[in-house]
Design goal:
single chain; alpha+beta; three-stranded antiparallel beta sheet; 10 strands; binds adenosine-5'-[phenylalaninyl-phosphate]; nucleotide-binding; magnesium ion binding; ligase; ATP-binding; tRNA-bd_arm
Length: about 325
């Protein structure tokens, strides 16, 4: 019995196998305790010698098991260490880091530049009341821009704003001049989509009302703005244009020698705020005048990076967007 136990213990390959052997030989109903039970049936004088031998076998087997167990444990621990070994020299998996969208970067820059010129940034709703988008801005009742060919109507009184200029009435009705404010955000127009027009795009809209504000202030402000956005060599051209909310009205284009062969690209519209609007909000036109300008945000990175299709900005194709990783 002792020998067969020893043989089994010697080849036990795991702690679990050893435990099984232990219970078979030494456990409650194992073969060595079973021998002990025979003791009662023996002659009195045979008992001590038998008992001693069985005990001796029990201790011997227990010792073999303990010894083997210690060996197996250290082997198993080594195997576990090996399996869990970490190679600290392996290159790590970098977490995928997000980065700001090019339109967000442009918006941040616009905010820095206009904020630096003393203009206050204000939020204004994308789902806008018809009256702020049109009536407050001196549109006559039959103006074609109000046509649902051009404007997304949500109901009779609400539209998706077609221009960020809708901010003006909201400010004028609540805050007296002097004012210097701007907003940046999404605008929507129901128009045919092509490389330079989308149904959803972004605008900056900025205005200032104070004593003695003239076209010179407008040109000066737009000049600083354009140089901050496109660099020192940018040129700006103003031409007369019509918007119901300015008088006189202009559109302005920029040209830089680096891009589009120096061709003029229209950025937006501007002018002096129409006296009708100032009067409507009780602003004294003898004392105050103001300028306003608005422009397409997409036009800025288009010009700065030479992008010829503005639909790319909203398609979320990472091959396009990743090119602006790390820009500021
Ligand atoms: C306006 O929206 C006027 N609110 C601008 C303004 C503000 C004039 C203050 C005077 C005083 P306009 O419709 O031209 O004007 O649009 C201004 C600019 O937005 C355009 O020059 C262009 O850069 C951009 N834009 C207009 N429509 C789209 C479009 N569908 N997709 C992309 N950009 C557009």
């Amino acid at each position: 019995l002792q020998r067969s136990a020893a043989a089994e213990i010697a080849v036990a390959e795991s702690t679990a196998a050893l435990r099984e052997i232990e219970s078979r030989f030494l456990g409650k109903s194992g073969s060595i305790p079973a021998l002990m039970k025979l003791l009662g049936g023996l002659d009195k004088d045979e008992r001590p010698a038998f008992g001693q031998r069985v005990n001796g076998a029990k201790n011997h087997v227990q010792a073999l098991i303990d010894e083997r167990a210690a060996g197996l444990r250290s082997r198993e621990r080594l195997a576990q260490f090996e399996a869990e070994r970490i190679d600290v020299t392996m290159p790590g998996d970098r977490p995928r880091m997000g980065y700001e969208h090019i339109l967000q970067l442009t918006t941040n820059k616009i905010k820095r530049v206009l904020g630096g010129l003393g203009f206050q940034y204000l939020e204004s709703p994308e789902l806008e009341e018809f009256r702020y988008n049109f009536d407050a801005l001196n549109y006559p009742p039959d103006h074609p821009a109000m046509d649902d060919q051009d404007t997304f109507y949500v109901d009779d009184d609400h539209v998706l704003r077609t221009q960020c200029t809708a901010l003006q009435g909201r400010v004028f009705e609540s805050t007296p001049p002097p004012l210097r404010c701007f907003t940046v955000g999404r605008t929507y127009r129901n128009e045919a989509v092509d490389r330079t027009h989308n149904h959803t795009f972004h605008q900056v809209d900025c205005f200032m009302i104070d004593e003695g504000v003239s076209m010179a202030h407008l040109k000066g402000t737009l000049g600083v703005f354009a140089r901050a956005m496109f660099g020192e060599e940018v040129q700006i051209r103003f031409r007369p244009d019509f918007f119901p909310f300015v008088e006189p009205g202009v559109d302005y284009a920029i040209s830089t020698p680096k891009l589009f062969d120096g061709r003029w690209v229209e950025l937006g519209g501007a002018g002096l705020i129409h006296p009708n609007i100032l009067e409507r909000y009780g602003i004294d036109t003898e004392r105050y005048s103001g300028f306003a300008f608005g422009l397409g945000v997409e036009r800025i990175p288009m010009m700065a990076y030479g992008i010829d299709d503005l639909r790319l900005f909203l398609e979320n194709d990472l091959r396009f967007l990743e090119q602006f990783r790390g820009e500021s």
